[in-house]
Amino acid sequence: MDLTEHFKKGVAEVKTSAILNFAKYSSQYPGVVKFTVGEPDFNTPDHIKTAAIKGIVDNHSHYAPSNGTPGLKKAASDFLKRRYDMEYSPDEIIVTNGATEAIYTVMSAIINPGDVVVLPAPIFPLYIADAALEKAEVVQIDTSSTGFKLTPEQLQAAVDEYGDRLRVLVMNYPTNPTGVMYSQEELNALAEVIKGRPTFALCDEIYSELNYDQEHASMAKAIRDQAIVLNGVSKSWAMTGYRIGIMAAPSELTEQLAKVHQFITTTEPTPMQDAAEEAFKNGDEDAERMKAAFKERRDYLYDALTDLGFDVIKPQGAFYIWAKIPEGLNQNDTEFVYELCDKAKVGVCAGSWFAKGGQGWLRFSYATALDDIKEGVIRIKKFIEDETNGSK
């Protein structure tokens, strides 16, 4: 008897992560240059590590409150106000197991089978998988012809088609994989389309500290009562392994989301919450220092890839560059990245792994050392030369 036939139907629709699968594949090559996984190469700042150690020494080894320690929730509340002028009381914040758990909590708390989840694509595939697990109808809006930004007209067309079934609009900005950022005016215009409708705006702002050319903007400022804001410490303070995210929403929404959260994870590790509290309270300079390094890497990689013939979207935030495969090379992006890995020992992500609009594109993560980026460019240049000469 094949018991896999009796799993929840949504599970069969979910594929394993192509990004993680490829990262594992590329690791077979010693010395491979990886532009794959979005993980900062920095170490966590010492004062933040000290806070975690102090938590252990002080015997913070018991269950924290399910929604998070009072100190961390207060620090997160102050951070959102100080950095972005967003008002959320500590009671309106839930500490999660990274933004990943927060996304799943939102999807599982809100979606009923047949509800519609709309997302601008290309986009990080996690949202699609979580929505599919809840048997939602996932609608991907291809933004490749609109500068990789969702427009009010595109969103209005979805509202006209799906009406009150449109339950969740996913907005991630700065955007993974393109690095595109929305202005406050652009987000306000999108918010106006769904304002007053039974639609939640899931605002994933995990890259909020990594804005290079403008101030961070948030849809929650336009429709606070419909917005659920996600943030955390992973990207801005190189704390991916600490697994601490935050979810902020009006109290009536938080009360319901907390029910699902507590049964998924109970609570997060208390010493890790101590560390995240320190990051939010005293880590502004750390985040700025890392952002400066990322910006230098962005500028170098953007210029280098442009010189090599790539059509490159210059990122305004996060640490990803979105580049179109040059003409004359294999335009099948999945085949291309495996060829590049096998022949040049360089790992990049295929654009088609990020849903609609990604075919023929590549995502480069520049969350790696500048020297490694420079070596990767040298290898890519030689790969292109070899492929071009070999095709003549």
From TrEMBL:
Q: Which GO molecular function terms does the record list?
A: pyridoxal phosphate binding; transaminase activity
Show the PROSITE patterns listed in the entry.
AA_TRANSFER_CLASS_1 (PS00105)
Cofactor(s), by name: pyridoxal 5'-phosphate
The record's listing under InterPro entries reads: Aminotransferase_I/II_large, AspAT/PAT-like, NHTrfase_class1_PyrdxlP-BS, PyrdxlP-dep_Trfase, PyrdxlP-dep_Trfase_major, PyrdxlP-dep_Trfase_small
* Enzyme superclass (EC): transferase
Quick one: a GO biological-process term for this protein?
A: amino acid metabolic process
Instruction: List the EC numbers from the record.
Output: 2.6.1.-
* Domain called Aminotransferase class I/classII large: residue spans: 31-374
Which segments cross the bilayer? Answer: none
Q: Name one Pfam family in it.
A: Aminotran_1_2
Sorted keywords for this record are: Aminotransferase, Pyridoxal phosphate, Transferase
Keyword Transferase in record: yes
Record PANTHER family: AMINOTRANSFERASE, ASPARTATE AMINOTRANSFERASE
Per the record, the similarity remark reads: Belongs to the class-I pyridoxal-phosphate-dependent aminotransferase family.
Name listed for the protein in its UniProt record: Aminotransferase
Q: Which organism is it from?
A: Lactobacillus equicursoris DSM 19284 = JCM 14600 = CIP 110162
